[in-house]
Amino acid sequence: MPTRIALAATLILGLFAAPAALGAGDGAGASAIKRSGLPLPRFVTLRSAEVNVRTGPGTQYPVEWVFVRKDLPVEITTEFDTWRRIRDAEGTEGWVHQSMLSGKRGVVVTGQVRSLRRSPGATAAVVARVEPGVMGTLRKCQDQWCEVDLEGYRGWLNRAEFWGVYPDEAVDD
Q1: Which of 10, 34, 63, 156 gives a 20 to 30 Å CA spacing to 132?
Q2: Which CATH class is domain 107-163?
Q3: H or E element: which one contains 97?
Q4: Residue 137 forms beta bridges with which residues?
């Protein structure tokens, strides 16, 4: 019988009421600003167990949220100098310093309880049942199936069952 993995911690802790965040285009007119040259948007993970998310790209902007999950997958949507505008699986957006992000790829299970499968395919044996919110590491993808590590279990999920990879993105470990 497959093991059931449960969500262990809160994803986000709201701290302050803050003015509306800068739009995705803010700061884009400053062509002399250093950018990474990496593709946008792109997925990364949080490097620390506590990451301040600000309303704008700089320490002079107030902290709007604090993410409290190391390795939480987020999407970088905009770059401004050493600051990155990110979005999480629930749509929360804000600015973080690039040093708080890692290029490691992560996933978070979405929707309902999912079946982690032994091989890619809807009829493959079930390794574990996985609840929404469980996080893990993205290994590789084959067509619509991706191999992931979730809290000590390795298996395959359909791309539609988690957040952290684009629909047609090629991923190879």
Answers
A1: 63
A2: mainly beta
A3: strand 93-97
A4: 106, 149
